[in-house]
Design brief:
three-stranded antiparallel beta sheet, about 25% strand, Rossmann fold, alpha/beta
């Protein structure tokens, strides 16, 4: 269940603090993401990666151009999101945090199956402050996938975690996406993460942001982070980003 995402001549400008004129972050940006594909946006801080994510999420709106979802399952219009911080409600249990995004008529089994898949069944009735950072981020992923999203947006979801925990969660994310076929956009500064998770890596440069290069990750799944072929993709991204 997935959607194609199409950016067509998208532009977005902001007036920065202390400036009088608006500065274009993206301008005439056109790009398509195929159904079931995960695309990683990488580039320097401030280049416009999160701006593009916010435009897809309808958190912000383009000044020009359009962003459309099309040619997917007719019921796959829901958006799932995971951020650097889990953004859980501390007064709700793990189960309740995930259940919160579902309509009242949804079956409880939907949540319990996801918690089991993410290794959280034992923490079902725990509160966020009782969990480790990795467990809280697992809850955030469960919440993102609970709505059976047509599009999954990931804004540096593992950057606040230690590397061992982040590695485990990348493998969990890979497994979930393989099972559900969700279209995804990943914003990350971790180039090895991009090489491991993505089908294509879009390198953004300049102001306003432009697509400087695209790295095709033609590797079979499931992948392992330590696979030499993944490392070769990482090296290719590094070379093109420099």
């Amino acid at each position: 269940m997935s959607r194609r995402i199409t950016f067509e001549s998208v532009g977005k400008s902001y007036v920065r603090h202390g400036q009088l004129a608006a500065e274009a972050v993206v301008n005439n940006f056109s790009f398509s993401i195929e159904p079931g594909e995960l695309v990683a946006f990488v580039g320097p801080s401030g280049v416009g990666k999160s701006t593009l994510l916010n435009l897809v999420a309808d958190i912000d709106h383009p000044d020009q151009g359009t962003i459309t979802w099309s040619e997917g399952d007719s019921d796959a219009g829901t958006l799932g999101m995971a951020f650097q911080q889990p953004r859980l409600l501390n007064w709700l249990t793990v189960y309740e945090n995930v259940r919160l995004v579902l309509p009242p008529q949804a079956q409880p089994a939907i949540v319990d199956e996801l918690l089991e898949e993410l290794g959280l069944s034992a923490q079902r009735d725990a509160y966020p402050l009782m969990l480790s950072g990795g467990q809280r981020q697992r809850v955030a992923l469960a919440r993102a996938f609970a709505v059976n999203p047509g599009v999954l947006l990931l804004d540096e979801p593992f950057s606040a975690l230690d590397e061992l925990t982040a590695r485990r969660l990348r493998l969990v994310l890979q497994s979930l996406r393989l099972n559900k076929g969700t279209t995804g956009i990943l914003v990350t500064h971790n180039l090895q993460e991009a090489a491991f998770l993505a089908d294509r890596v879009v390198i953004l440069k300049g102001k306003p942001a432009r697509i400087a290069d695209i790295v095709e990750v033609n590797l079979p799944r499931p992948r392992q982070p330590e696979d030499p072929a993944v490392f070769e993709v990482y090296r290719d991204i590094m070379k093109k980003l420099a």
